[in-house]
Amino acid sequence: MKKPDKQFIKSLDYEEVSSFFSSVGEKDYRARQLFNWLYERNVTSFDEMTNFSKELRKKLDSLFIVSPLSLEEHRVSPSDGTEKYLFRTFDGHYIESVLLKSEGTDDGRLTVCISSQVGCAMGCVFCATARIGFRRNLETGEILDQLCHVRRLTGLKNNNIVFMGMGEPFMNYDNVIRAAEIMNYSFGFHISVRKITISTCGILGGLERFMHEKQPYNLAISLNDTDPEKRAHSMPVEKKYPFAEIIALLGRTFPVSRNRLTIEYIMRRDNISRDDARRLKKMFKYGRIKLNLIPLNPGSDAFGAPGQEEIDNFVKELEIMNVPISIRKSLGADISGACGQLSGKKYSTE
After folding, report:
1. Of these residues, 83, 96, 139, 317, which one is catalytic?
2. 96 labelled catalytic
3. Does residue 225 fall inside a structural domain?
4. Are 153 and 86 in contact (CB under 8 A)?
5. pLDDT of residue 157
6. Is the same domain home to 200 and 217?
7. Is 10 a residue whose pLDDT tops 80?
8. Is 339 an active-site residue?
């Protein structure tokens, strides 16, 4: 299916929108009004933008598409309230987003996990998205529209955004960073940079660019193995971008401002030995790091999930590390919405 003749209005940043309005003889303030309609009021059509003239609304509608995604399925976990959304793109692909509700949701502490690509080229053995292979990058408008749909469907405004859905964000760097910048606009979503986390499996060029540009967003890096040979087996990216080089880069240039760095570590039966704990202790000797331990979720036959006693023993070995450690509670596993389970369900029937 070919791309529509119209542009996705949500793919444009403030400067581009302002330039458009100037080209049609409108004042600069129209740009702020448009972003307010798109992201604060979350409208689905230009007709709803009642402080624009009919002629301007008609012009916008002739050139742009408000919502590039359509909702195919919405599932809610009966066990923990996690919500998963299956979206169809304009060209017939499928992506998934997840709304995570931790304890204390009455005060609005919510997280939306969004996708950055259709499929993924990284080939991580334990990840369902990898089985799809890489189809294409998502445009900025498609990234942002996921959040628009979730807010519109739930009536909830989340506190946190994590680029941890389908795809490798740093392989779609420009569109991901642009989406994060638009999320931060005060005349729209107005999400603090401290509430936006971008995850990567370790794309060295993307990390170097992120730090050189002094991007203010939180960073999460998936490690998942302390032994290079084992990591190369489970995460082929290790062959091209060894984690030892990433550690060296972090030691030279991180943090770039007030960034928080999280090291993601999926716990399997074969990577939580005493030796693994010792190697982790040696890897990270500087501050502003959080080690996030994640039990392996169902969906991969290649590895075995550890039992609680094995996890407890591993955590005890790590207790003397001089970094914060947390164990992420698995949310949404019963609807295939947990870490490593997103697959764009429709692909399993192709």
Report:
1. 96
2. yes
3. yes
4. no
5. 83
6. yes
7. yes
8. yes
Q: Record the pTM.
A: 0.91
- The domain tally of the chain equals 2
Q: Summarize the confidence of residues 35-44 as an average pLDDT.
A: 96
Q: Report pLDDT for 248.
A: 87
What CATH number should be reported for the domain holding residue 46? 1.10.150.530
Let me know whether 341 and 272 are in one domain: yes
Range of 31's domain?
Answer: 7-65
Q: What is the pLDDT of residue 72?
A: 94
Residue 119, domain member (yes or no): yes
Whether residue 1 lies inside any domain: the answer is no
Catalytic residue among 113, 127, 148, 339: 339
What b/e string do you get for 67-88 counting C-beta neighbours within 10 Å, with b at 16 or more? bbbeeeeebbbeebebbbbbbb
